Amino acid sequence: DVKVTQSSRYLVKRTGEKVFLECVQDMDHENMFWYRQDPGLGLRLIYFSYDVKMKEKGDIPEGYSVSREKKERFSLILESASTNQTSMYLCASTRDSGGPRNEKLFFGSGTQLSVL
Amino acid sequence: AQSVTQLDSQVPVFEEAPVELRCNYSSSVSVYLFWYVQYPNQGLQLLLKYLSGSTLVKGINGFEAEFNKSQTSFHLRKPSVHISDTAEYFCAVTPANTNAGKSTFGDGTTLTVKP
Questions:
Q1: Mutation test of the interface with chain B: which of A105, A106, A107, choosing the one with the most B Cβ atoms within 10 A?
Q2: What is the pLDDT of residues A15-40, one digit of tens each?
């Protein structure tokens, strides 16, 4: 089965630090996504990528950037972490099949980031 | 733009009772609809999806959902729940022919099954 692995389950950082969240998928998926999950707010899309070195902004990109140097790895970067970025971060991937008819979204287990 | 409203933030229910988790959506275009489940300390898993055709969709773990276009609803049901169904459930909508990863998610409904 497809595996989406997020490198850290829990992360504690200080305000102003540069933070890297790593996500790796093992099924050669073209599409990768980063979300943040907050209680009562559901999932909100931060950034996504349809191909290597390609990125597009989601609904809440402010304060974040991403990097996709290799097909299997999609990194989320907090340039200068702030307390309002304390959240659960979820990575997901899917094969490029032309639409949801044939695709399935696979999620990682999430990284709970606390910014103090 | 699309929006999703999950009408109940928490649903407590006893084991073996039926359950319905309610989801309404709004959209000016045709949409695809999804239900996901998130067990504690895990990512989301797809339960079922509606793309077209029969309005009654069956998913994994005995769940089903009915698409009602006139009421713009996509409620999730299970006739008899188990303790192991305790989890958070998310309804999601995406414009037709758009990647599922760009879905708009609801705020979630926490289902708690009590013995």
A1: A105
A2: 999 999 999 999 889 999 999 999 88
